[in-house]
Amino acid sequence: MTLPDKKLLWLALDRRPPGAAGALDGWTLCMARTLNEAERAVRTHACQVGLLSGLGPAADPAALDRFLGAHGGLVWLVLAAPGVLDRPEWRELVRTHAHDFHTEPADPRRLAYALGHAHGLALLHGHRAPASVAAHTELTGNSAAIARLRAQVARLGKSDAPVLIWGESGSGKDVTAQAIHAHSRRAGGPFVPVNCGAMAPQLIQAELFGHLRGAFTGAERDKAGLIESAAGGTIFLDEIADLPRELQSNLLRFLQEKTIYRIGSTRSISVDTRVIAASNVNLKQAVAQGKFREDLYYRLNVLPVTVPPLRERRDDLPELTDHFFRLYAADKPRHLKGFSGAALRAIASHDWPGNVRELINRIRRAMVLAEGRQITPDDLELAGADPAGAGDGLGRLRTAAERAAIGASLQRAGSNITLAARDLGVSRMTLYRLMSKHGIAAPK
Ligand SMILES: Nc1ncnc2c1ncn2[C@@H]1O[C@H](COP(=O)(O)OP(=O)(O)O)[C@@H](O)[C@H]1O
Ligand SMILES: [Mg+2]
Questions:
Q1: Is the CB–ligand 1 distance for residue 35 below 6 Å?
Q2: Where do the domains of the chain lie?
């Protein structure tokens, strides 16, 4: 039996050359010093293991959390300077995404062992190269909302028009985009995700459209952009609202003419790439504020798709919970058999502001930490199914703030539920549920 090449992605955020080199014997190393470089590396190399170093003030925990969340297909190790893991944001990141961590300076022998172990784990799990999207294209859930979404995905696969996916963070926009791609005639072509919010504005143009050699300092050779590299397939522009205005024009031109210009070139190249965009902010509002081009908005919004927040499709919770428990079963202690009734009730009554991503994170964490045969609300770090959610100090504050915000909105809206819901950015159903949770009477 031949084992696949051992490929390691080293994301060194402090840009320092890697030490502990002895630990890397036998590995093919892909170095990345920024999230952009790492995104590219993940797309082009089938690395099984990721090593993250350089956590500190210069790194952005939220962007990293998104990146690692999107690339959970790799087994991640963290190499941290002393003291870094005393900071709650980094502890949380490591707890959520890392399989193991080491303090610098790392002992090369221990690190080599840990990397080998991570590689074995990756093979065991059948972690796939992220290029194969098949593993992520199924929308799990049996609520009416998910059934509608699945039907919509199948329909959208038949078209070639742009799609705009709207949904809160963690609700499943990426999976939905991948599912649309997988159901389209482009399924055999590349699926190229780009996070418009995670890239420096001055880099996005070169990344998306490519450049000629010498087009700017550092452009040492001609390079195709991501739109070109997605030819025959789909480019997924996540957080499209963050696309700088100048680039909105370029994108619009691409959507209208199906051609692009690399930076520094006057020659147009025609490219057959489908665009799927996603946003977690209200783009229409961004248009009203002059931050987003109206013509681009209409162009993208030909086929709008909404992924509802998890709290509005609670019927999905049992199936999703079961799905993720089985998905991560290889990490769990042998004695762990499932969830306690109290845990399931806590899951059912939690509000899931972080949506499916939060559910995954809580379940993964609980599966590693649980000491008994069953996962408890404590393992999930959820207060028991107390309807007011007033377990700890923060929970109480949050509950009070929520109640106050709802009260204020209802008052402003003259008790008009539709207006108040819009004001709060939730659906009417959610507002009704929140009112009942807080014992606020519905207007007559
Ligand atoms: N319906 C679903 N079935 C299975 N997994 C899901 C579903 N919705 C979301 N996920 C998973 O939850 C995580 C967050 O989803 P993602 O699509 O990245 O959210 P978003 O792009 O809206 O922030 C991903 O790991 C994704 O695979
Ligand atoms: Mg996403």
A1: no
A2: 7-130, 135-307, 311-375, 393-437
